[in-house]
Design brief:
mainly alpha; MetI-like fold
Length: 265
């Protein structure tokens, strides 16, 4: 009993240490966003909403934020469509190389971002396609697909094919079976994958740098402004906004999935 009690205490302490290690830096970003002195120095000199107001009025920051939102939404739509189709193909049909397809899809999220960005930038150059808004969407969609695919195929593997077979036996065609049987069971997994894809795309910076051309997203704006002393307060506010727009989709995705969901390594 004593050993079991000590083990539980040790696990709680270890969990607390891990949470502090992960979230104290994020908490500091939020605190400094309201620091009256406008510096990232501890302790804060006071509390103010001044920097939030200045950030909202900064046109460059506004444009970068909107660009990130639009790119993330577009990449999420592409990822949801392609990820859903790929999951249906792999889970419901037998064909040569099926396991290879699954491996190749998942590999996209395991590759270093710098390698993915370099490869995509080289490909766009070889095809004489311009870098910019469209290139960012394509670059983000390549790894966002994996999040949708993983969520969707996990749900399909738990869904017995007997329901779809029963639908076909009752006279429903393929599209009716998908509409009334498969899609309702798959819907929450697709939404969860889409939310994760949005969160990942919104704050992605490495691939974006390779694909952006002259387009500036919020992570790029933060990256370029971080070392400018007069921009530090606005960078902290932008960082706080990025944290919120990452936490909310991940939380909702976790609730929809009923457990812990994966993200990019």
């Amino acid at each position: 009993m004593v050993g079991g009690r000590l083990g539980r205490v040790a696990l709680r302490v270890a969990t607390g240490v891990v949470l502090v290690f992960i979230y104290i830096p994020l908490a500091l970003v939020v605190i400094y966003a309201f620091n009256a002195s406008g510096t990232s120095v501890w302790p804060p000199s006071g509390f103010t909403f001044k920097w939030v107001g200045e950030a909202l009025a900064n046109t460059g920051l506004q444009q970068a934020f909107l660009t990130s939102v639009v790119c993330a939404l577009a990449a999420t739509v592409v990822a949801m469509v392609l990820g859903a189709l790929a999951s249906l193909a792999v889970s419901r049909y037998s064909f040569f190389g099926r396991e290879t397809v699954s491996f190749v899809l998942i590999l996209a999220i395991a590759l270093p971002g710098v390698v993915t960005g370099m490869a995509l930038s080289t490909t766009f150059g070889a095809l004489h396609l311009p870098l910019g808004f469209f290139a960012i969407i394509v670059g983000h969609a390549t790894f966002c697909i994996v999040l949708v695919y993983n969520n969707a195929i996990a749900r399909l593997r738990r869904l017995s094919s007997s329901f779809e077979e029963a639908s076909a036996d009752l006279g429903a065609d393929t599209f009716q079976t998908f509409r009334y049987v498969t899609f309702p069971a798959l819907r929450s997994a697709l939404i969860a994958g889409g939310l994760l894809a949005f969160a990942l795309s919104f704050d992605e910076v490495i691939v974006t740098i390779f694909m952006a051309g002259g387009v500036k997203t919020l992570p790029i704006w933060i990256f370029q402004s971080f070392r400018l002393a007069n921009q530090v307060p606005l960078v902290n506010v932008a960082g706080m906004a990025a944290i919120l727009l990452s936490v909310i989709p991940v939380y909702l995705a976790t609730r929809l999935s009923g457990g812990v969901v994966g993200a990019r390594g």
